[in-house]
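LAB NOTEBOOK - FOLDING QUEUE
OPERATOR: T.R.
BATCH SIZE: 2
PURPOSE: Compare the predicted structure-token outputs for two unrelated chains run back to back under identical settings.
PRIORITY: normal
REVIEWER: second-year student, initials M.K.

ITEM 1
FIELD SEQUENCE / FIELD STRUCTURE:
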Amino acid sequence: MFGRVVRAHRLRLGLTQEELAEAAGIALRTIRNVENGLIMRPRLGTVRLLATALGLAGPERDRFQQAAQSDPAAQSDPAAQSDPAAQSASATQSDPDRAPRPDPAPEPDRPVPPAQLPADVTGFTGRVEHLDQLDGFAERDTTTVVISAIAGTAGVGKTALAVHWAHQVADRFPDGQLYVNLRGYDPHGRTMEPGEVVRGFLDALGVPAARIPEQVSAQVALYRSQLAGRRMLILLDNARDAEQVRPLLPATPGCLAIVTSRNTLGGLIATESAQPLSLDVLDHDEARELLTRRLGADRCGAEPQARDQIITTCARLPLALSIVAARAQQTGFPLAQLAAELSSSTQVLDALDAGDPLSQIRTVFSWSYATLTEPAARLFRLLGLHPGPDTSRAAAASLAGRSIREIRPLLAELTWASLLAEHSPGRYSFHDLLRAYASELAETFDGGQRDAAVHRILDHYLQTAHRAATLLAPRRDKVDPPATSDLVSPEVLADQQQAMAWFIAEHPVLLAAIGQATAARLHTHTWLLAWTLNDFLRLRGHWHDSLIIQHTALAAVDWSEDRSGQAMIRRELGVAYARLGRHREAERPFQEALRIYTELGDHNGLAWTYSKMAWSAEQAGRSEAALQHALRALDLFEATGDRRGRAQALNGSGWYYCQVGQAEKALEHCRQALAPLREIGDQVGEANTLDSIGYAHHHLGQHDAAVSCYEQALELFRTNGARWDEADTLVHLGDSQHAAGRTELARTAWLGALAILDELGHSDTEPVRAKLLALRRTGPPTRPSASSGRLS
């Protein structure tokens, strides 16, 4: 077996096991296990290190590596050992995945495989047996889904091991890798729910958000259907319990789920045939190797006693050792001084005791914290109050009540001290343990300032989100956020593109901020934050998020005395229901909004509500009811003298006239809307009306006139960055070109629409694909498509 080959080469060179371990940079335990036959097929990286340490090169090195990967039975056959062809055949038989495979046939329009793994751990050391175990799990019968539950105490390196191994085997899973931090031990209780995770995975797998079912069970079924026939790696990090994990597990061969948790997850082992892999602290050799990799052999070798004292005092806990190493690198202090400081700490016994895992590394964290200047230390503490999962510079500045110019060096100081990570330019995060430590410190030292800091960070997100929402939809209701302190630094957003980019980056933070505002009973912040997200969620197709936050907003706004806000949120809740096809449930909040606006005597509010109800009725297939609602809105806008509202209602009623077969009446109404919209300068409203006029011309068989209107509308949409509206009009343009017999021009328009809808992840892609597919066949001209949400 391979262990005898290693021993023979070692004895040939006159090396002890200790000397070979040191020369190869491998733990002594690994050398012993290999030679004793406990590890018969070590990892390729380990074999290469051994070959180099043994001075093997050329054919001899090849034979050495081949011996490590061959079937143990073949190694006992002298003929197989002497015959390279036999060795190759044996390797192929023992590992079918090593046999040559034909290149897979290309799959058109397949989305780019997700690659969500966090960055690999720099200087990862030790854990050879565990890596080998994981290799073994991955190489088992491919008809079985293998789940590895990696359990262990806080800071023992579960995530580091899982991420490092996942990077090593990523090429075995050509369909991609999914990753999520389930936050099972978040100190604030913000554990990721399975439904939230599944929706994120479906998004990563290219499923448009608008097509995701409402029920979690249906979402899970769709997720598992997406995994069918694929080879994917799913890394579920920091799981709370088995119930949090079960809906996220694949149900078909070819996929591998790796789960990390502080619990053993016995339920998964018992009911899901999970393979348990428990981590303990490092052995002494591995801990020494970790410090040597981080600090260099010369520095560690010069102070072996201090080095070993650090290892013992840190209880061989990987996270503690890594933080100590970082302090040694940053300060340049002798190891003896660092060891003395650690040993003399009054909290070290509590930190490294076998008690509460969260408290085991508190003192180690305090080391890095103690090196900070007071402004940086205060910022670190306050970051524990941030809703998470990450923060921008401006948000950190608002939290601390400082300028962005002042905050930059403080963030750099925290990053240098390994208390914060800049995971992407200008965005910072830290893991759950550091967050818990920071929050604990804030409660101790900043008790009187905590509420003010939370208020500032929520003001930051509300002020910026309001600006972003106004840029995305300048024609929406006017709702002004409350005045805020000069200590708050909103993000600077110049245009619609920047607004959209900000919403995309901050989407998970804003959802968390709504939860934080709710917990803090800052009701105005809660419902106004929900209001700011309406158009972004509509444009991105996040209908489920929209419904959830509107329910949260409703509870918050009802605590306030803002009756207009209460009506507005009910109206938006009705729209959220309607977008999910739940039209019966939409009716109640719509009617409640009408009642409140009637009590207030707010005719404009009534008019906008009837406009939304008209759209909802059309989506439900009730075109006559939609027309009646739109005409009611028109009457109200005429009574109030709202020119913009009247113009939109004219366009809306014209559109619905077309839906009920009265195209001439539609032209009359829509043409009346054009002049006031142009006078007001509402270019998007003008473009929408031109699209409606083109639609009416199409129904009248006047295709050239329709094309002209559509082209004018497209120019205005593109000028204003209205991407979904541009796609909708391109669909209509394609319909008219096709009806006029201009097939290639129709194809060009529909392809343009499809590209935009795919970019937005919108549900309207399937009808457009069907139109393109129909071009390959002989058939009648395509019937014009109805809008799926333009007027909403």
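ITEM 2
FIELD SEQUENCE / FIELD STRUCTURE:
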Amino acid sequence: MSDALGRIRDIIQEDVGRRGLRKDPASNLITATADDFSGACRSIAEHPRPAVAVVTGFYIPTAQPPAGETDRPRGALVLARALVPLGIRVVLVTDAFCIRALQAGLAACGLADEVALITLPTYAVSMDIGPEKYASAFFRRTGALTHLIALERVGPSHTLASLQAQTGAQGALGETYLAFLDQVPAEHQDRCHTMRGRDITANMSPAHWLFEAAARRGVATIGIGDGGNEIGMGRIPWDIIQRNIPNGGLVACRTATEQLIVCGISNWGAYGLATGVRLLRKASADDKLYDANIEKKLLEAMVQAGPLVDGVSAKPTATVDGILFEQYACPLRRLAEL
């Protein structure tokens, strides 16, 4: 089984977008999280009664009009389709700009009555109520959870305090300290960024508060990401992200999760996690989960209803991260073989 999980991990970690996941062959985002994929799969599969909330959604400010991105909500729907038949309770969580897309996807899959869908409060409302009330209200709505998953959910960048906490250093950090001050100006610290460094903090609900609260509540946390700016990436030292990812020093998220799945496209991470859990649970094969035609139809429905846009082109097309759908769907065929 370990070999099978390793094969799944290798499939989903192809750096199709050339983001620099392995730029430094000796120390990179992949080597820093080598055992996390297996750990994440086993954490869910081996729990006697798992209940999972998936937090997703990313704001593309350059779209006309601004909209949610195709990479993320689609992966959340994959997890629901794969885990609900195993008797695992799934809750999907996102901002208002992604709700219609997820509603359309759940309806198309016949899961609208089985999967709860929660809308996060806006950034402005969240700042008024504060992190404690924000998290308490969320966990009241979800009911008892065992796992909280961030599916390429943007999180806040580092501060000097988080950098010191991560490294265990006190006072000056030498060259790392100087590099941090050079790459992360004060006005960009503790802010949510796109891969290009655009500040979208005010457009996103501060979902990282949920992951900070989860640890205090005994809820296991899993991050899925492909660019360094997502919740969970705080598990990787800032210096590794800034050396591997273009603009990585600026956008690197400070919020960590217990397990972190780094992948070429975040939806692929969801496909991989779903496949790993089903293998560990010895679930019967379900070809529909890996049918590229079904995937494309579901994506098209979500793009139209959302709308959702490709994160690279900012256009409402059934594509992800600027690559053709055929290339995007290749891992599905390889996972189906397992």
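REVIEWER COMMENT (ITEM 2): The mean pLDDT is 94.
FOLLOW-UP: none requested
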